Amino acid sequence: MAIPDLILQLQHAKEPSRELDISIGIVMGYKRHVKTMPKGEGGEKRKVVWLYPTDGDEGRLPTFTAKIDDAYILAQNLVPGCVGGVSWDHRGGSAKIDDGPYFTASSPAIALCIAALSAKHFRHDDDDAQ
Question: Secondary structure of 32-82 in the HEC alphabet?
């Protein structure tokens, strides 16, 4: 999925979404791997694992859209050295990274995901223009 499409889906998300987490993980470089494991009586059980982009180790895919800590990891990985802020109220959350715009969403974690993806996308576009 293209980053602008993912950002648009996040902006319209009403709640955390595992499908959106998967799309974010793929953008970050996580690899999905299906393992087959013995399951008693000669059968096999399939298990989906995720391989970390940095070292290829197996692990869980973070819940970027649900947990602010995971959204923070996204921001730090996509925009190393960035600074920013997150706020929330009864309507949802907002986030800003570096000198970028404020983004609002249904939750602070989703807003931070949008800000991180936007910062990465537009910085990448600026790099291509030079």
Answer: EEEEEEECCCCCEEEEEEEECCCCCCEECCCCCCCCHHHHHHHHHHHCCCC
